[in-house]
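Subject: Predicted fold for 50S ribosomal protein L29, 54 residues

User T.R. writes:
Posting the sequence so we have a shared reference for the thread.
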Amino acid sequence: MQSDVEKLETLLLTKKIQLNVAEKVKLSKLFVASLRKEIRKLSTLLELAKHKNI
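User M.O. replies:
I've generated the structure tokens; pasting them so everyone works from the same file.
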């Protein structure tokens, strides 16, 4: 069973891959900006989760 931290790491990696693909195929700037914002929030959440698990 995956821990919450592992789930967040997996989700963050998935979003980073989506961003990479979105940039390469030149999807809308709004969509790319939205993904970047989501990645920033997930990164912050992941850092908080890691800090609490220590």
